[in-house]
Amino acid sequence: MGPAIGFGGVTGAHYNATLCSMWRAYLLRDRLGSRFGELVNAVVMWSASRRVAIREAGGYYGNIREFPKYREALFKRFINGRLNCPLISLRRAEILGHKLVEHMERKSMSESERHQHEAHQRWLRERKEDRKLYREMPDIDPTVIQKGFGFLALMLRNNIPGEEEDLKRYVQEVFEMEMRSFTAAGPGDDRSEISGTPYESDRWVMSCVAKFVARANSVEIARSFIGKYLTWGRPGNIGSRISWNHGSARDYRSALICRVLRESGRT
């Protein structure tokens, strides 16, 4: 797999192209060397670029007319070695995606449309009559992350020396991305349920976390993930709870996970 070919697959129009390219890259990681890390960073940055490209094309996921210009911009960074660095955080990609979306909206909206949009966003944040919290979805494409990090299935299945720290970092990154999407109720806010149902990417994240916790077989690691989940995810929320139960019950009926949940009074 040549670097350019790998990049083309990662940024392909179809999500399965991203999955297959990164799966293959992981299998060839020893031969690729540092290029594998660059492709992982390309996945992270493409999640932001693809998101804004879809928005710019009208929000329809089948419309890829804006892909080439964003792919070309990212490819220049790839070729020039600007992705040859430690793992780029998903938080950084979210910030980039937000800036790109804001820039696009400033260009495409009139001043009156912009004011109407801002007023609508305020109304969504402030409405309380339905007693629901609304998720703050990041301006990245979570399916790109799910498919691009699909090789985590291999890392979680195999116990390969020297990969434990990378695995932990990857799992932490996708988990914290998930948790940032949950809205925390402020003081005096009695809303207790997050609106909506889990996406496929939500279930994938929690499945990865459940597998990692069971694999690590460490109470401290279990508490670090589950404790944050119970705090950020608000256990009364149907959506977040389904995600966690799907991950833990389907993948591993782990006594360790059950123990930590019992300690917190959530079973």
Quaternary state of this entry equals: single chain
**SS strand fraction:** under 5%
Largest sheet: 2 strands, parallel
Low-confidence stretches: 233-253
The spatial strand order of the largest sheet comes to: 1-2
Q: Approximately how much helix is present in the residues?
A: 55-70%
Distance between the termini: 47 Å
User: Helical segment tally?
Assistant: 14
Q: Mean pLDDT, as a whole number?
A: 80
Strand pairing plus helix content: what structural class? Answer: mainly alpha
* Secondary structure tally: strands: 2
Task: Please give the domain count.
Answer: 2
What does this structure look like?
It is flat and about 55 Å long. It has two domains: 1-134, no CATH class; 151-267, no CATH class. The protein has 14 helices and two strands, in the order H-H-H-H-H-H-H-E-H-H-H-E-H-H-H-H. Helix 2 packs antiparallel against helix 4. 67% of the residues lie in helices and 1% in strands. With 267 residues, it is mainly α. The longest helix has 23 residues, at 34-56. It has a two-stranded parallel ribbon with strand order 1-2.
Task: Briefly characterize the structure.
The chain has 267 residues and is mainly α. A two-stranded parallel ribbon has the order 1-2.
Q: Which characteristics define this entry?
A:
mainly alpha; 14 helices; two-stranded parallel sheet; 2 strands
